[in-house]
Design goal:
Helices cover 35% and strands 21% of the residues. By secondary structure, it is an alpha/beta fold.
Length: 296
């Protein structure tokens, strides 16, 4: 992330989106993996005058025993009606070198929504092997939406759930209600961004949003900052930054200068629990975010 420039400070809004950094051991594809998730199209950023920064609020690390456990399950599952469940696009990309390739015909992949499905197809999973809720069908893009899709299918012989430390604790028991053989593999762990990185982000944000015109009133000259948070962990890491940024804006003007966008009621609830206000919950994906930015 570069220092704010005069050109960037001409933008009318700063968007900070949290994405995990992916860290693989040498045996699983090497070092830190640059995220290739969506971004706002450059034409849209220019039209809306939005400066977009990505901040890795946490890192995902492959667990030492993940490869052995995933391989053992795959070997016994081949030839049966089997399903792998992966909970996010980032974890799917992180664990992709440990998954069977080319993708076996008998194996389905359960995902949480359109973003994960697009990631899976980009990696090489056939579309017919995917089971996921979609915004196009008006479905909830979360574990509830996936469970509803799975409940409408023929029963599975075996399921492997790939998860990290923490996360949704209700998903595994719900899957066990659909299949008697569910293997839960803690395939990766999350580590939060360190304090110096978070403090550096705060410094950059405060520098970026300094009043543009000294003669203008403080309320009108402070640039809006939008935080786009797609996980509860990102809320926890960035809550001090958001609180500090909000503290510099008079309460009467805050609704036009600070916004926290989340992509699930559970994340919205965490933000409110952390004392954050002006929290908005949108459907996941770039389209709903772009529409909100255009309307605000």
């Amino acid at each position: 992330m570069q220092e704010p420039s005069e050109d960037s400070r001409a933008k009318r809004m700063l968007l900070i989106s949290s994405r995990p950094a992916l860290v693989r051991p040498a045996s699983a594809g090497a070092g830190e993996v640059p995220q290739s998730d969506w971004a706002l199209p450059s034409s849209l950023r220019e039209r809306l005058q939005v400066e977009e920064w990505r901040f890795p609020a946490f890192h995902l690390h492959v667990q030492a025993d993940a490869a052995q456990r995933m391989s053992a399950w795959t070997q016994r599952a081949l030839g049966s009606r089997a399903l792998i469940v992966c909970v996010s696009p980032g974890s799917l990309e992180l664990l992709w070198p440990l998954l069977p390739q080319p993708w076996p015909d008998c194996l389905l992949l359960g995902l949480m929504g359109d973003g994960s499905a697009a990631k899976a197809m980009a990696l090489g999973v056939p579309e017919q092997a995917l089971v996921y809720p979609s915004q196009r069908r008006g479905e909830s893009q979360d574990s509830g939406g996936l469970l509803a899709r799975l409940g409408a299918l023929d029963p599975f012989d075996t399921i492997m759930l790939l998860k990290g430390n923490g996360g949704n604790l209700d998903l595994a028991p719900a899957l066990e209600g659909l299949c008697r053989d569910v293997e839960v593999v803690q395939a990766y762990r999350r580590t939060a961004a360190d304090a110096p990185s978070v403090n550096d982000l705060l410094r950059r944000v405060m520098q970026w949003r300094e009043p543009r015109a000294p003669a203008a009133s403080a309320a009108s000259s402070i640039a809006p900052v939008v935080f786009y948070l797609t996980s509860s962990e990102a809320v926890d890491v960035l809550a001090p930054v958001i609180t500090s940024v909000a503290a510099g804006v008079h309460e009467a003007q805050r609704s036009g200068r600070i916004a926290i966008i989340t992509t699930h009621p559970r994340i919205e609830e965490r933000a409110i629990e952390r004392g954050l206000s002006l929290v908005v919950c949108l459907s996941p994906g770039v389209d709903s975010l772009a529409q909100w930015l255009a309307d605000n």
